[in-house]
Amino acid sequence: MQSYDDKNGVIWFDGAMVPWRDTKIHVLTHGLHYASAVFEGQRSYNGRIFKLEEHTERLIHSATTLGFELPFSAAEINSANYTVLEANNIVDGYLRPVAWRGSEMMGVSAQKCAIHVAIAAWEWPSYFTPEARLKGIRLQWSKWKRPSPETIPAKTKAAGLYMICTLSKHAAEADGFDDALMLDWRGRVAEATGANIFLVIGGVLHTPTADCFLDGITRRTVINLAQVRGIKTVERIIMPEDLADANEVFVTGTAAEVTPVSQIGDDLQFQVGPITRQLIDDYTALINGGAEGPLSAQAGGAS
């Protein structure tokens, strides 16, 4: 497996295109030590970046919540994303904008740290293998819980919030699962390590209320696609025991797209049913249509 610091190509780094291997930061960077960094994950299909504006808006919101201002406008960041795609000759790929505090101060206080922004892009297949997506992925229950929004900036895509996601996914993969399902601090179903979760119960979509985790851009897109199809969606408190009532389960995310779930824990089994298949087809049609996909007018924008 090739290391991500050893690739051909260029990365947009603080407004300039820099050879991939030369985009270095100092070991005493504040973002490395104190997690003062935010990022986005974006996909390009047929040369168009899906929901780019919404991702950039969220990147700016995340940075503002963490107390720093990006030195580039939304328009400049949007343009830079396409510059990176074109410079690396990528049509279908993944983009990672990231912003962080620099190394001017080393301590909890970081008011004088410079703010850096970079955007990398690379060709990347589906987050889960095609075989796993076809038959559904297997989720293990995580021992880590999503914290209360009174303790973390829950509505941001901040780097530090993913530490327990990495721990959960590593444990799940070590036990032969594909990913982990996390509860929140109250014991309610929350999300997978990098994706939101949906249940189909009696022909109705049910998804946890996003009050302590990201209301994902793909999550909102799928809710809108379901509305176009006349499929009702209920956002509510979901307890672990409610999963036994589900006929179908799937997860959504920029990387995961719409991926069915075949198993949760050791005893809950699910089929890849008709509603999941329909939403996979609709989402695929939307992303392959670029910025003006066949259902985009009805599906609207995500937030």
Portion in helices: 25-40%
Percent strand = 25-35%
State the shape: globular
Average pLDDT rating: 93
| CATH architecture annotation of the largest domain | Alpha-Beta Barrel
What's the β-strand tally? 16
What Rg, in angstroms, do the CA atoms define? Answer: 19 Å
For the largest beta-sheet, the strand count, sense and barrel status come to: 9 strands, mixed
Structural class by sheet pairing and helices: alpha+beta
Strand and helix map with partners:
Elements: E1 10-13, E2 16-19, H1 30-34, E3 37-39, E4 42-45, E5 48-49, H2 52-65, H3 74-87, E6 93-101, E7 115-122, H4 130-135, E8 137-146, H5 163-174, E9 179-184, E10 189-192, E11 196-201, E12 204-208, H6 217-228, E13 233-236, E14 248-253, E15 257-264, E16 268-269, H7 274-288, H8 296-299
Word description of this protein:
- This protein is of the alpha+beta class and 303 residues long.
- The chain contains eight helices and 16 strands.
- The chain folds into two domains: 10-122, Aminotransferase class 4, branched-chain amino acid transferase, N-terminal domain (D-amino Acid Aminotransferase, Chain A, domain 1, 2-Layer Sandwich); 130-299, D-amino Acid Aminotransferase, subunit A, domain 2 (D-amino Acid Aminotransferase, Chain A, domain 2).
- Helices cover 27% and strands 28% of the residues.
- Strands 8, 9, 10, 11, 12, 13, 14, 15 and 16 form a nine-stranded mixed β-sheet that branches. Strands 1, 2, 3, 4, 5, 6 and 7 form a seven-stranded antiparallel β-sheet that branches.
- The longest helix has 15 residues, at 274-288.
- The model is unreliable at 290-303 (pLDDT under 50).
